[in-house]
Amino acid sequence: xxxxxxxxxxxxxxxxxxxxxxxxxxxxxxxxxxxxxxxxxxxxxxxxxxxxxxxxxxxxxxxxxxxxxxxxxxxxxxxxxxxxxxxxxxxxxxxxxxxxxxxxxxxxxxxxxxxxxxxxxxxxxxxxxxxxxxxxxxxxxxxxxxxxxxxxxxxxxxxxxxxxxxxxxxxxxxxxxxxxxxxxxxxxxxxxxxxxxxxxxxxxxxxxxxxxxxxxxxxxxxxxxxxxxxxxxxxxxxxxxxxxxxxxxxxxxxxxxxxxxxxxxxxxxxxxxxxxxxxxxxxxxxxxxxxxxxxxxxxxxxxxxxxxxxxxxxxxxxxxxxxxxxxxxxxxxxxxxxxxxx
Length: 342
Hints:
- The chain is an alpha/beta fold.
- It has two domains: about 5-120 and about 295-300, Rossmann fold (3-Layer(aba) Sandwich), CATH 3.40.50.720; about 120-290 and about 325-335, Dihydrodipicolinate Reductase, domain 2 (2-Layer Sandwich), CATH 3.30.360.
- The chain has helices spanning about 15-25, 55, 75-85, 100-110, 125-135, 170-185, 250-255, 295-305, 315-335, and strands at about 5-10, 30-35, 50, 65, 85-90, 115, 140-150, 190-195, 210-215, 220-225, 235-240, 240-245, 275-280, 285.
- Helix 4 (about 100-110) links the parallel strand 5 and strand 6 (about 115).
- The mean pLDDT is about 95.
């Protein structure tokens, strides 16, 4: 059986918690090597340690490259990988500008290679549950949709994501997930209005973001904050026929950190039900859908083997980047901004 050789550039938390276990869960994929420059880096058994990305790109046994490095390196590394003839998966944010995103999508098409952003949270239990309920018509026509990704981390940590510099901040970290899910449900908005700021003591990168997507018949609120003790509802949906609330975040990240892996009996099982209120105010608890973030890499394998579409299409990557950038401009200039056309 033909297997797709995978190489990963970067050996941080995202590699250990998401990419390695999800790649290993797909039989058609084989993790070949990881670029890990620290000599004490711990790698999975039977996976080669490579000190430099150039060596990985030159390896004929590596068919696809996963870029899991600081955000300001994503576009340059993706460009190098595509020119080396590799398929590419890029951690979010896909790029730091809409122009970069368009250039990468065009280069992938020119090279005849797949390129995808790691929007693994399309397969979160919370999102799958809300999407299924909306598709069933449980709230009628949606008029108000809130998506929160809140944490309680009141102290600034010594890490690149929280330091001043290109690619840092909570909006570029969590915004791509929030946007991608919203666009899957509702498409591109007419305008974006945003307030993005550093609010914690000593913060030099934004740690709070409140973004409103305006549609003709609905408003979509995307919110991320780092000082939310006890959490907040993950999703709140109001419509002409009822309401939905999903309180808790998908469990897969926590499960992976704890050592559970896809294929385990409890993998992706979410004990927190979706709450639904109908037009008469009657409440129903709906069991949550099962999460399956490893499905991202199942789609990667199928795309590389010519068996199916990639986990996200180039126009979807560009649309997410357009909204991400529109929010940054809106926050800086204090006005509503229309996302640039595809």
